[in-house]
Amino acid sequence: MILRYVSDAFVVIGIFFAFAGTVGLLRMPDAFCRMQSSTNISTLGLYGAVIGGLVKAISMIVEGYELGWTMLIKIALIGLFSILANPIGGHSIAKAAYKHGVRPEKEFVCDAYGEDEFDD
Questions:
Q1: Is 46 within 8 Å of 13 (Cβ atoms)?
Q2: Which pairs with CB-CB distance under 8 Å and at least 24 residues apart come from 77-84?
Q3: Domain parsing of the chain, residue ranges
Q4: Which pLDDT does position 116 carry in this prediction?
Q5: How far from 58 is each of 1, 13, 52, 64, 87, CA to CA, in Å?
Q6: Residue 88 burial (CB < 10 Å; 0-12/13-18/19+)?
Q7: What is the pLDDT of residue 76?
């Protein structure tokens, strides 16, 4: 019974981060800040749901359901692939935007991308 509450708490945490990221996506001033907010949605929001799902699958295994193992493996793979894909995707989108001339309203404090020479 307590695992149910833990699972629900993690899902609510994921919903909170998804909502906060959506508000940030609507309120941020430039493209790079909006990309950071959208990455938070896909990373922190998904992780809350993944951890909640893993706890739910573990509770199903404890209760004796064989479907819990299948659920556990699928949710773990979703979490693993998102850990690998989200940071790489966010970085690629930000670098492509910078390469195509998207700049923030204020100057960068550190402009490491500007030091690179882009090959076309």
A1: no
A2: 78/46, 78/50, 79/46, 79/47, 79/50, 79/51, 79/54, 82/42, 82/43, 82/46, 82/47, 82/50
A3: 2-115
A4: 62
A5: 12, 19, 10, 10, 28
A6: exposed
A7: 94
Q: Inform me whether the pLDDT recorded for 61 exceeds 80.
A: yes
Token pair of 89 as six digits: 């995707």
pLDDT tens track for 76-107: 999 999 988 888 888 888 888 888 888 777 77
Is the separation of the CB atoms in 7 and 59 below 8 Å?
yes
In DSSP notation, 39-78 reads HHIIIIIHHHHHHHHHHHHHHHHHHT-THHHHHHHHHHHH
The first and second tokens of residue 30, run together, are: 């430039």
